Amino acid sequence: MGTKYISEAVADAGFLPEKGKIVWESPSNIALIKYWGKYGQQYPENPSLSMSLKKSVSIVELRFRKNTDKKGTVDFKFEGIENQQFKQRVDKYLYQIAGYFPFLKDLYLEINSSNTFPHSSGVASSASFMSALALCICTLEKFTHQTYDSDFYQKASFMARLGSGSASRSVLGKFAAWGKNPGFSGSSDEYAVSFTEFIPENLRIIHDAVIIVNSAPKKVSSSQGHQLMQNHFYKQARIQQANTNIFRLMEAFSSNNWESISDVIENEALSLHALMLSSSPGYILLQQQTIDIIDAIREFRKVSGAQICFTLDAGPNVHVLYTEKAKQQVETFIDKELKPLAENNHIIYDKTGEGPVLKEKF
Ligand code: PMV
């Protein structure tokens, strides 16, 4: 795919108007099968599967201007305020994709990003931000093209992947898979594809209540975690496990069996943290409340039979997943038993979302 995108790269910004603005809103996603470990140009060691969220989104505004002496430079603001750390990440990303979008050198870019969810809340902002930024740049490119024959979302997912692996899945709505997986013929390591057709109708909306246990920035970043997988003692076993789990999850969805679905999802969450615990050096992102919440969810499921399970991202906050059918019963349980375990009673209620939305073009 990369060589095709290089060959169709647009050399200059001739076709663009003098100035303009593009705005994309793109969601975060929560992985059901975890991507953990990467190689080369952000290729995943194992296939992953996720659900895009509805309310937890990033909004990226990209303003461009042609005839200015600031051509070839970028200014970045997060929620209207300059942010050097974030800007460095954006600069690095734009440098990385420069070969695919040579016309960017003719433009001065002003990027402003904002999120509908708080930072470090257990909702992945890199997935929503990088996917929104990739969509903005691909939209610009599409405009400069006279003969565009790429699949727009596939290309945006490919570009989002180069910014953050999990961002490749945010370009798709609902359920998305990324990473070559023998059980799924359309899957690819280069971009994510929709997985929604494999989800039964009654499970196409899954609620996700994120119980905030700790909102402080993570002690160990995901990129450090991916790196530690390179020489991990369990690396090959993990790759095998993820491939088996994705197959088991596909089967569980096709037979609409919540017990098996929750079994695989929880196994993935705990395995992710087991890999962190057993890496070298090992580290712990779980907290006491994380474990108390997990115990409470399992006990509640046993007693009530409700369609509920949990997953974890690379942090202590717990994502409580439950079906539309179980909503009322589960939310009463969350309110009564889980809320007191949350930091400042903080819970983010979200659910399956439809995917990115183009809000404004020129
Ligand atoms: O996309 P990254 O590099 O932020 O890695 C994401 C890793 C996990 O969130 C832990 C799992 C996943 O598949 O999203």
Number of individual domains: 2
* Uncertain residue segments: none
Helix content: 25-40%
Instruction: Please give the largest β-sheet.
Output: 8 strands, mixed
Overall strand count: 14
* CATH class wording of the largest domain: Alpha Beta
Which radius of gyration do the C-alpha atoms yield? 21 Å
Structural class: alpha+beta
**What's the CATH architecture name of the largest domain?**
2-Layer Sandwich
Shape call: globular
Residue-averaged pLDDT:
94
What is the N-to-C order of secondary-structure elements (H for helix, E for strand)? HEEEEEEHEHHHEEEHHHHEEHEE
Distinct ligand kinds: (3R)-3-hydroxy-3-methyl-5-(phosphonooxy)pentanoic acid
Tell me the span between the first and last alpha carbons.
28 Å
CATH topology of the largest domain: Ribosomal Protein S5, domain 2
Beta-strand percentage? 15-25%
- How many DSSP H or I helices? 10
Please outline what is shown here.
The protein has about 350 residues and is α+β, with helices and mostly antiparallel strands. Helices cover about 35% and strands about 25% of the residues. It folds into 2 domains: about 1-200 and about 355-360, Ribosomal Protein S5, domain 2 (2-Layer Sandwich), CATH 3.30.230; about 205-350, Alpha-Beta Plaits (2-Layer Sandwich).
Structure description:
It is a single chain. This protein is α+β, with helices and mostly antiparallel strands. The chain is globular. It has helices at 2-7, 84-96, 125-144, 152-163, 167-170, 222-228, 235-254, 258-277, 288-304, 327-338; strands at 19-33, 38-39, 43-44, 48-65, 74-78, 81-82, 108-115, 175-178, 192-194, 206-211, 308-312, 318-323, 347-351, 357-361. Strands 1, 4, 5, 6, 7, 8, 9 and 14 form an eight-stranded mixed beta sheet that branches. A four-stranded antiparallel beta sheet has the order 11-12-10-13. It contains ten helices and 14 strands. It folds into two domains: 2-198 and 354-361, 2-Layer Sandwich (Ribosomal Protein S5, domain 2); 205-351, GHMP kinase, C-terminal domain (Alpha-Beta Plaits, 2-Layer Sandwich), CATH 3.30.70. (3R)-3-hydroxy-3-methyl-5-(phosphonooxy)pentanoic acid is lined by residues 31, 34-35, 48, 124, 126, 164-166, 222-223, 226, 272, 313-314. Residues 31, 34-35, 48, 124, 126, 164-166, 222-223, 226, 272, 313-314 line the site of (3R)-3-hydroxy-3-methyl-5-(phosphonooxy)pentanoic acid.
